[in-house]
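Input.
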Amino acid sequence: MTEVHTADIVVAGAGHNALIAAAYLAKAGKSVVIVDARSIPGGGVATEEYLPGFFMDSCSTGHTIIQANPVIRDDTLGLVAAHGLTYVDPDPVARVAMPDGEQVGMYLDPERTHAEFARFSQRDADYYMDFLADWERAKVAFGKANNTPIGWGPSLDQLLDELPNGGVWRRRRALSAVDVIMHEFTEEHIQAFLLWEACQTFGSVDLPGSGVLPYSIMGGRQKRSWTIPLGGSGKLTDALMAVIEQHGGAFFGDTLVSRLLLDGDRCVGVESTDGRQFLAREAVLSTIHVKHLIDMAPAEAWGESFTYGVETYDIGIPLFAAFLVMDEVPTFRGKGPKDTAVSSGLALWPHEVVEQVRAIRDRRPVDGSAWTLIATPSIVDPTRAPEGMQTVKMLVPCSHVPPYGYDSWDEAKEKHADRMLEYVATQIPNVNGDHIEARIVKSPLDIERWNPHMINGCAHGGDKGVPFSGPLRPAAGWASHVMPISGLYQTGGTTHPGGSITGSPGRNAAMVMMKDLGLEFPG
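Output.
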């Protein structure tokens, strides 16, 4: 006999955006059931005990962008006040080594960052202060656009036109991050540092539509640093699940959705690979990747426009990860442990970044790293490791195809980890076998196995260039979280405004669903 579970709302996928939407709906009195392929909720917002006593963020670590979302800024779900979610803003903000051995530091005090930049160029250091002020004026427009469902308010271009230099911003957002950085800054170390920061959303920084990244990333980090939750990235998930469960919601893990259940032309639930059915009295909310979602219903149910949009959707740039247990803080050459930022790494010169990112898009093997992140959250959060020990995560972009002539990333991953760690040790010498007590390597294949939403190890929901942003995300005509199949809604990284830990797709989807269900959205 088929096992059936019924609720007002069925949520397929338990990423942080889906959980935000589910929390709003549950608080509004709707019964909610959430299903996910993993045994635990959170998607990329998870912290796991990979080794006894060592708690690693399996994907996301920095939560800077979501700080501006009313979910955190105004604590609209009570995650902070009622459920103990606590954030810290590490200082220094960043330390990055350049190919020539120079290093650039960033600090919460903008004057200290100015002084650091001035070591390389007084002109660029002075311009950086104007750069920050310009972003402070413009960020309200971008914030409104990101935290409003498509079609519910003025377009981003209309919002930008209200600025004194709106035309400048309209051009900037259409340019690439590389274009903007190279036009506005003149010194190569500062250019490389800004591009390293812009790369942290794993986007194609050389393509049109990425031009705002240098401003938004630097502006956010200059104000808040690389904000992290105490106890790990998964503490955001824990707080969201506490809200959902407090209002009667239920989570079913190890439940991989195989198809949408249709009654005529309406979606009324989902079915898992083991035959269980989850039926929705009112609506189904999906955060399944659109590349998978489209295979879960008959082709004719989607329509030509949506189908074409999904077929041409760019899944993004894969990542490669190594999780390290170290007996001391990764320390840069010539510096002390106190100089290491939670968010540190190695940069390449801009032309080298462009060459590697293009090679990745062309699906050519790449054995280097366009940018390298060394994340050590245990520096400011001792709950993540035993006393005297550190949890370190190395993230690098990589190609969809393995390097070194191997046929599979399963064959290549340990060699690639060795090569990347040798590269890191040229600038951070103690990242070596004498101080690494354990390591766990995750190739793009491992990442996809861990979370099917992260197709080929692409963790940010897809590229956010011009063809895949705003009213075109995920497909033209279907950017307002309502899907072509009646009763089905979509959220997550494949929807506006895209991936990273922003919470915006989840809050936006909640707004749309609650309006359709006749509920008042609380803010």
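Residues 69 and 514 are 18 Å apart (CA to CA).
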